[in-house]
Design goal:
Radius of gyration: 23 Å
Number of helices: 7
Shape: elongated
């Protein structure tokens, strides 16, 4: 069955989800939650035999969408800024509200560290005196590491500092034995309950909730082997039908 050509009115993630549904189910997606309509499911999926499925797209967003919002902000700068000094720098940031403050003090902190030959701001001798250093090291969610062995300038090119969210770390549960419990808890959150309620009050032959799971939305032991057959089977069993 041919895919729909026009998904105008849906955002990028909703369009992406519709394309996946079309390929996986052999359906054609039609946008539904578009102006002037409000509070409706995002799309309808039409099967070759005429059946229709209500289709709703959302994010798991267990942290209130903070990590998603931070990714969106960092992506605008391609996850990095030009380096002001002589070293390459790596930065971790957890709270999106710290990004404007980091932007203001970044050049100053980098140059202070390099001038004193220290690779982390928290060991600067002025940490108790300088307000910017104190904010960065004691009040913000930011961590910074300088790498003196990697120069900031590569030929005629100025390298960029790498700014990311912290790594998840820890051991991975490759059996995904706790995944059902985590998903059950997620479906009890107000956000997902609202989307499920919207689907249930929509007249359709079938109803699907497409949940985008971010890397920070589940505990770290679920973060790595999402290509495993066990993970895919558990996700399909738990999330396919509403």
């Amino acid at each position: 069955m041919a895919m729909s050509q026009d998904l105008e009115g849906l955002d990028r993630v909703e369009q992406w989800a519709c394309r996946i549904a079309e390929r996986a189910l052999g359906v054609v997606a039609t946008p539904h939650d578009v102006p002037p309509r409000q509070g409706a499911v995002d799309a309808f999926l039409t099967y070759t035999d005429g059946r229709q499925a209500a289709f709703e797209v959302t994010h798991l967003a267990t942290d209130g969408s903070a990590s998603l919002h931070l990714v969106q902000l960092l992506s605008r700068d391609r996850f990095g800024w030009p380096l002001p000094g002589k070293w390459w720098w790596s930065i971790w940031i957890e709270d999106p509200s710290d990004l404007p403050g980091l932007r203001q003090v970044f050049d100053k902190i980098v140059l202070m560290c390099e001038g004193l030959g220290v690779t982390e701001p928290n060991v600067l001798p002025c940490a108790d005196v300088d307000a910017d250093v104190r904010w960065l090291t004691r009040e913000s969610s930011v961590r910074m590491w300088g790498c003196p062995t990697v120069p900031a300038i590569d030929g005629d090119h100025i390298r960029r500092a790498m700014i990311t969210q912290p790594g998840l770390g820890g051991f991975t549960d490759e059996t995904f034995s706790q995944l059902d419990g985590e998903l059950t808890a997620a479906f009890e959150t107000p956000l997902l309950r609202r989307h499920v309620a919207k689907l249930k009050r929509t007249r359709a032959d079938e109803r699907y909730l497409f949940v985008v799971v971010g890397v920070y939305d589940l505990p770290s032991h679920f973060s790595m082997p999402w290509d495993s057959a066990t993970a895919r089977q558990r996700m399909r069993r738990r999330c396919q039908w509403v």
